[in-house]
Amino acid sequence: MSAPRWATALLRRLAASNGTEADVLVGDLEEAHRARVARRGAVLAALLTSLEALDVALMLLRRRLVGRSVSRGESTLTRRPISWLDLKLGLRMLVRYPVLTLIASSSLALAIAIGAAVFAFISLMLWPRLPLPEGDRVVIVAHHDQVANAPESRVVADYLRWRAGTGTLTDFAAGRGMGRNLTMGDGLIEPVSIAEVTASMFAMTRVAPLLGRALTDGDASAAAAPVVVIGERIWRERFGADPGLLGKTVIVSEVPTAVVGVMPAWFRFPSIYEVWQPLKIDETAVKPRAGIGIRIWARLKPRATPATANAELAVLTAQAATDWPATHTHLKADIQPATSPEVNDPTERTMLAFANLVVALLVLLVSGNVALLMFARAATRESEIVVRTALGASRGRLIGQFVAEALVLNTIATIVGLALGQQAMDWGVNTFTRVANDGELMPFWITATLPPVSIAYGIGLALMATAMTGILPALKMTKGISSRLRETTAGGGGLKFGGVWTVVIVAQIAVTVTFPAIAFFVKSVAWRTEDQQIGVPPERYLSARLESASGMSQARFESAIRRVRDDLVAVPGVAGVSLADHLPLMWNGFHVIEVDEGGQGPTDDDFPGAHRITTAAVEPEFFTTFEAAPLSGRLLVAAEYIEAPQVVVVNQSFVDKVLGGRNAIGRRVRYRSSSNDGQRPPQQRWLEIVGVVRDMGMSAEPSLSTAGVYLPLSVRAVSSLRIAARVSGDMTTATNTLRALAAKADPMLRISDVQPLSMVRVNAVKTVNYVVRALTIVSVAALVLALSGIYAVMSFTVSRRTREIGIRVALGSQPSRVVLTILRRPLIQLATGVVFGGLLTYGLASLAGETLGLSLGLLGYALVMLGVCLLACVVPARRALKVDPIAALRAE
Amino acid sequence: MTKIAPPVTLAEFELLVMVAALRLGADEAHAVSIAADISERTGRIVRRASVYMTLQRLEDKRLLTTALGEARAERGGKPRRVVTLTREGTAAVRATMTAIHAMTRGVKI
Q1: Are A262 and A245 in contact (CB under 8 A)?
Q2: Domain boundaries in chain A?
Q3: pTM given for the model
Q4: Which of B14, B60, B70, B78 should we substitute to test contact with A (largest number of A Cβ atoms within 10 Å)?
Q5: Do the Cβ atoms of A181 and A749 come closer than 8 Å?
Q6: CATH code assigned at B35
Q7: Quick check: A24 and B57 CB within 8 A?
Q8: Structural domains in chain B (count)
Q9: Is residue A784 predicted with pLDDT exceeding 90?
Q10: Backbone angles phi, psi at B5, to 5 degrees
Q11: Owning domain of residue B45
């Protein structure tokens, strides 16, 4: 009957690195446990032993924190830099100054939360890790044609040769991904990402199904009935977590398939997949470098490294080149990470890393301010410090006490901050999924959990904050303490705020002024988005995305979407239907164009001689569906929908911004092929403008809806389209009708994002509002911290110079003039901070293109912020005005 | 003339630990048996963590020494750390007891 295993493991972990010490502690626990079992029975003994183990563990932790043994009395204080007693005193100080504790700990917590969450998010984007057991050992074995300089995925023959394992790699698996329609029991169709994988994939990932079984080798045989393993999300959302689902049939594209297992929701291997089917390989017909394209995964064997695996692969590919000279002579295989970073562009990667640095600086700034508050509080305890020095306390001891107080404060802030960071991470990943990934699932290694490395980073930030908030005020307080002892007894305080504090105060006020302005600018985006008029009510328009499933021919796709459109037009309550690659309010990126004879309006700074515009390819019915009559010229006609269209329609903003208001009809435009904005030009010939229509919102955010060009839509060239229908009847009925029509038109047609067009705007505003909310929280925290800092400085200045105020008033100075003299320095700091903040705001606003009327607005804003900051001076100033000269002189 | 340092006196729990160690003897005195002995005789609930801390403190003051004992089956094959009082330790116990006797003699409690 042994002691609980976790208890012995805990003691072993916490005992000194010396194994004998751990053996003794565990032996004691075992001995006491056996005695208890004999006396009180196994259950009670286990409970008591567990409690005792926790008690001993706490004792060991305490030893680690404050030294090998803990003695009572002052003698210990002189031996250790930080004692247990210091920590207790620190806790008492927090209770004694609750407002300061609240402000300082919440500011630090917020800073640590932002720091840890941003670091976690950036780590996920730049250095993702596979969240599988020993996930860092999972690799992709990739082939590359060295002559064609292109990846080669037709490697089934290589996979079959290696799958039994090599010297450095084991657990080989293969698979490929595709998009298909899944028809559920309720008859609704959902487009899903399906991975066809070998059964070995499940063993390689070491993740067990939540329900049922994984795929087996038998499932992949030609004669086997079709089976599928689905993800937990689909199981819950579409099958109501039915435990009896196993064995039931769903339709994958057009094939009835039995569900045999459910995988956990987080598992979407290899990246975003929620449905897994067996990869069927006819091994008798496999030829080298032929057949389907697959991806190969494997695990590094225990002592193998990427270098040894690559060395072995070089030998194996050389062997393959000898065996299959016609196909493998130029093929090279090497291992690659199983994850891929979301951000690959070197500039963007650098910017992200830089963003992390900025956030770390924010933590530093907040720490600086908290240090200021701690210093102001310490200043009120100067006599205590002087007395302790007189009684023999060393400077090291005094610094130790300050650091211990900061440590207690920062520990609380760290715990709260990391919990907040977890929330922020959750929010960040969800927002990123919605905004950057258009609501699609993210790779399963992008998780909303704060990883251990981020927690460590957060603790690192907290230690940095502890050093600043503890050591800085301590050094300042204890500098020249002996001489201050004399000065204090002589009647004048020598403690002053120095240059470091000035910088901290000015920087804090500047940041405080800037944050609300940024929040305002971002909020104004939401206002503009809400106010944008597109000429028709978007809530009356039903929109959806139509895509072709993998394996669907272009002709079949074209036929299917035309059928959906024609069927939808015939539905009562639907007044018009149109297809387009982008609908009003949907952002389509920029294109760069040239106008014949040069545009009359100013050209884009980034593209001299050209203009940035947005483009949508639309059907002729688009304009009638959205009730857009030509303002001049004519609309596109069906005859112009040929392979190589030569005409376009532009919007009013195009006429205003690109042509300077001149007549557009007959002018010609050409997409620039060498634009460096990442968008491929839709056409490269000169296109004639035949008509002008009103602005209909080229994006949800109006400032992006610059000039717009409407091209004739060529259905033959696309595999994804949007459909819009003007609905005069019930929107819910129309939504269900559209889904049903898509299912009826072709089971391979994937339909998604079925929603009123107004939801595009609603989602855009919601996202912006999320950012505004986060900025508001940061702004309020910055403001509270800044006001507390100003208040602390003012109060400190008044309390240090009470005697001087008394003398000046006694000599006949006006009290208001005295106050101004005394508070001049802090007021200058305040004004400097507001000016810097105003300049920073102006700079940021200019970068964001917000220049109109900004100067006056900025001045007003700066004055308001100055007023708000001055509020913090009211109480100290009143205190200074109330100084009675006689009382002040007598007190000294 | 060399000045002789007065013997160290002990706090209450230190005294209990030292006396328990004396009573149990050099081979049997270790944290578990000391805690059990104090608990049995005084009726107090004794936290073994307190015993560890006290033993450590007394060892730091050189009032006792510790050494590894034999591994035993009832301890899962783990050794004990047995406690022996030093001469200073015995003197400290004696001095503390003397002080207590001196203070309590004739006092009706």
Answers
A1: yes
A2: 5-70, 80-129+347-493, 135-337, 538-759
A3: 0.60
A4: B78
A5: yes
A6: 1.10.10.10
A7: no
A8: 1
A9: no
A10: -70, 135
A11: 12-102
